[in-house]
Amino acid sequence: MILERSQHGFVQVLTLNRPEAANSLNPELIGELTKAFTEISTDDATRVVVVTAAGERVFCAGMDLQAFAASSGESGPSTDASSSDASESKGFNFFGPDFKKPVIAAVNGAAVGGGFELVLNCDLVVASESSRFGLPEVKRGLLAAGGGTLLGTRIPLAIALEIALTGEFISAAQAAQWGLVNRVVAPEQLIESALELAGQIAANAPLAIQTTRTLTRRAVETDPSKGWGTPAELGVVFGSEDAMEGAMAFMEKRSPNWKSR
């Protein structure tokens, strides 16, 4: 399968499975990713998503240009991330702005171009010590039109510009130092560490997690004032059964039983 899916409690792991093609994104894989996130968005059995890849050397090499060239020749205009149409789209955010569940990237190797942009669209990042990150588009006369130009919303602007303008790679240690990566672990501990982090999140109230994620990201990506929830958004959490359950569980000194409502 080009995209492997496995369930670990309330966590679903999506594994890009094209190691022979550096896990690059072709139309089929993009379609499977989009389908998976669409299904997960309404699945109460999944509270957190982990995105990783097969192999040890490459997380994702970005767009499979050969596949897209062949596809565009058969069906019309190019869907290459460097095209103007793609630059006006959601880039490599396969879950879209309405997706509310936390997504963790478990980066097992090089995340290049669109692969790095896929990582940037995730909420948290666990990286192996051997992983690297880069936006080399400028070295090919292109630009990182799939979300790479938003790097400055994640790390200091001067550092973001250095990465984007030089096209050079940064190590996992550098990425962690600049706040782009949450945890750097040995390669053999990558999935275990990502699942541990995901499990810590999934143990909390689903509605509270989703609204907190939405408001926190919105404050950074749009306007700080948008980090304040609307009455409707706050009501979803504070008026929920889970809010009552959390209080009762605390008083009764037991683990809460979340209902996602």
From TrEMBL:
SUPFAM superfamilies: ClpP/crotonase. The keyword DNA repair does not apply. Keywords: Lipid metabolism, Lyase. One of its GO terms (biological process) is fatty acid beta-oxidation. The keyword Lyase applies. GO terms for molecular function: lyase activity. Belongs to the enoyl-CoA hydratase/isomerase family. PANTHER family: (7AS)-7A-METHYL-1,5-DIOXO-2,3,5,6,7,7A-HEXAHYDRO-1H-INDENE-CARBOXYL-COA HYDROLASE, ENOYL-COA HYDRATASE-RELATED. This is Unannotated protein. It comes from freshwater metagenome.
